[in-house]
Write a structure and sequence with these properties.
By secondary structure, the chain is an alpha/beta fold. The chain folds into two domains: 214 residues, FAD/NAD(P)-binding domain (3-Layer(bba) Sandwich), CATH 3.50.50.60; 107 residues, D-Amino Acid Oxidase, Chain A, domain 2, CATH 3.30.9. 32% of the residues lie in helices and 24% in strands. The protein contains 13 helices and 17 strands. Strands 5-4-13-14-15-12-16 form a seven-stranded mixed beta sheet. Strands 7-2-1-11-17 form a five-stranded parallel beta sheet, with helices on one face. β13 and β14 form a beta hairpin. The longest helix is centred in the last third of the chain and has 24 residues. The structure holds flavin-adenine dinucleotide. Flavin-adenine dinucleotide binds next to α1, α10 and α11. The site of flavin-adenine dinucleotide has 33 residues, from α1, α10 and α11.
């Protein structure tokens, strides 16, 4: 009988792990801070790569379900100059290795594949304590505690489990994005809709200014307005005053083509600031009995199109490692961590050597891992 696994976080990584453990008959419970599956809009499209994310989906036995949620045509990709000139335009011919899905739909198929009760909602971990011998005590915001012999931190960028393994904390990566949404764009914002096309669009400017946008279902344009500025610069903007903040951000894009600027000025939602943080690239730790990390908790990086894919693969690989060595959990964790450290360091290295030479202005344009020519 395998030792029960306690997972913190029902993001894509934690759920992929739970699913693979379930397939191998290993008992698992996932504790999630959010109060329900619909507590927070999951937002955004993810392209799931054939060399990592899709391998995890396969290990989870969910390939058919995955194909049923792929958004056909959304792998199209365009690169525009700031004046609107099309520099690169690639149609989606259905043969690409990075199909696009909605993050919420992907999370849903993982959740639906687990026995009821596997995920405990409204279970926010507030503290952790080593008890020795590989055992750990978890404290929850609801006042309860729990002791576990095998703990996995799948709790994202600001992991509460991470301090058990390492003192590393995320630092500001130098770039933030402001998110906007334009609804029913084909009829209400046709020029912007045409500029974005059927999939994703990147427009690079000078001085760390860039716009990345993609078409979501229902002709929604979801844009990430990238600005390379220190956090103080953003702190001086009042994001509670949506109109003023929008106008201030738009000013930074004076001189850009109107159809690109309208992705800022015509937003149907209040602009949402998202600073990017990162752990040191190649970050690792010494083995600590009874606990490990996966996904952003282990190797948070500025968005480079790999984060969700790596989290999925970490989860699947950890599940497989535990299933392969039911009598030697420490050997399983060591094997998993060595492969995970290698994988995440390689991903960080590849993106640091991207076409922009790792310059900060590559960040927002790199959100889905598509590279400008
Ligand atoms: C703007 C933006 C765009 C991105 N675009 C892409 C993309 O196109 N492609 C891609 O591959 N990646 C993308 N990423 C990266 C990707 O979102 C992450 O790498 C991925 O979500 C990591 O998954 P995870 O399961 O490790 O963590 P998360 O998805 O962060 O899940 C962690 C879960 O843990 C829960 N949790 C947190 N703290 C606690 C606690 N104390 N107690 C209990 N539960 C807790 C959270 O509520 C959450 O459900 C993007 C990121 C950003 C910010």
């Amino acid at each position: 009988m395998h030792i029960p696994v306690t997972v913190i976080g029902a993001g894509l990584g934690g759920l992929a792990l739970a699913r693979v453990l379930h397939l191998h008959g290993i008992p698992v419970t996932v504790h999630e801070a959010e109060t329900s599956p619909s507590a927070r809009a999951q937002g955004g499209l993810l392209d799931i790569h054939d060399y990592n994310g899709q391998l995890a989906i396969e290990a989870a036995g969910l390939t058919d379900a995955f194909h049923s949620i792929v958004l056909e045509g959304h792998q199209a990709m365009r690169v525009l100059d700031r004046d609107g000139t099309v520099l690169f335009d690639q149609a989606d011919d259905g043969t690409g290795g990075r199909p696009e899905v909605e993050r919420g739909a992907l999370r849903r198929i993982l959740l639906d594949s687990l026995p009821p009760g596997t995920v405990r909602w409204g279970r926010k971990v507030t503290g952790t304590r080593p008890l020795g011998g590989g055992r750990h005590e978890l404290a929850f915001a609801d006042g309860t505690t729990l002791t576990t012999g095998l703990l996995v931190g799948a709790d994202g960028a600001w992991s509460r489990v991470r301090p058990l393994l390492t003192s590393a904390t995320p630092e500001y990566a130098g770039t933030s994005v402001v998110e906007t949404y334009l609804f029913e764009a084909d009829t209400r914002h046709p020029a912007a809709a045409k500029a974005v096309g059927g999939g994703s669009m990147i427009a690079h400017g000078q001085g760390g200014r860039e716009i990345f946008a993609h078409r979501e279902s229902g002709a929604t344009l979801h844009a990430y307005i990238g600005l390379t500025e220190p956090q103080d610069w953003f702190a001086a903007l009042d994001f509670t005053d949506a109109a003023t903040a929008t106008a201030r951000i738009a000013r930074e894009f004076d001189g850009w083509a109107p159809e690109l600027r309208s992705l800022i000025t015509d937003t149907d939602t209040a602009p949402l600031l998202r600073p990017f943080h990162t752990l040191p690239p190649g970050h690792r730790w010494e083995r600590v009995p009874g606990v490990t990390l996966l996904g952003d908790a282990a190797h948070l990086a500025p968005p480079n199109g790999e984060g969700a894919n790596l989290a999925l693969l970490d989860g699947a690989e950890l599940g497989r490692a535990l299933a392969a060595r039911p009598d030697d959990v420490e050997a399983a964790l060591t094997a998993y961590e060595e492969a995970m450290f290698r994988r995440s360091a390689e991903a960080a290295e590849i993106h640091a050597m991207g076409p922009a030479g790792g310059a900060p202005h590559a960040l927002a344009g790199d959100l889905t891992g598509h590279q400008a020519p």
